[in-house]
Amino acid sequence: MALPTLSKADLIALSETDVTKPIPKESIFAALASPPFLYIPGTFNTRDLGLLPLTNSPNPQKGRKVGIRPGLIYRSGGFFPNGGFNDAAKTQLATQLGIKKIFDIRSVREHSHAPDPEIAGVQNFWIGGAEATAEREATVNLADFLEGKGERGYVKMYMDVLGGYKEVIGALLRSLLDAPKEPILFHCTAGRDRTGVVAGLLLSLAGVSEEDVEMDWMLSRIGTEMARAQLLGIAMKGAGVKSVEEPGFGNLVSLRRECWGAFVREVKRVYGGWEGYVRGELGMSEGEVERIGRVLRGE
Prior knowledge:
With 299 residues, this protein is an alpha/beta fold.
């Protein structure tokens, strides 16, 4: 019997669950059976960005639809063979979803510990070695997350993503221009922060409202639930704390709208917005940015 799916309002409410508390099983199973989530064994937080429920269908100001074409852009956490990522999962990615390229938004250490799987017909893209600008491991200073709801820490962390991973982000965007009909997937380890930043960029270029982009980011609270305990342990180790009660740690591991909003304001202040980032930081022309938007929307 098929699981019941949740409405957009239900997903939003569930995404606000305190990360230190588990989401009830009946709720998480129903949520993960709801668009935009997809089930692929051996990974988690996997979604089709084109299935994100939007509040703004057509854009009356520009006379065109907004949003990403379903079946074109996928996001996820890492791939875990010991967690069930097997040949059937590879077939699902390559054959059922038709994914042609996987973009890895991880550090040198992360990639070396768990390289992306070799899948027939799928190209792996990871910018490493001497060309990597993200060679340094991400360091977390809990002092940045003490004030308010951690806005300052998130702004710093996410602006570092835009600067430190710009090579792979640029490669992803250029692949949309070179092969506009080929589905792609991008991921980091948890599929939450670095992946969330890139998803926000793509959705914004596709004309999605700030409210709906924020929702996509918040949905990682649901998508990471099945690995919540493991990810909390990783975060505690990275932050050098022994308790989730450590000052600032709750802000670090929580997803709160105020933090995403503060980051978006900083993108506007520094780059003039998402399109400004693509043009100024990635060196793409105004015409290329417009073409990427059309590709994303399926026009």
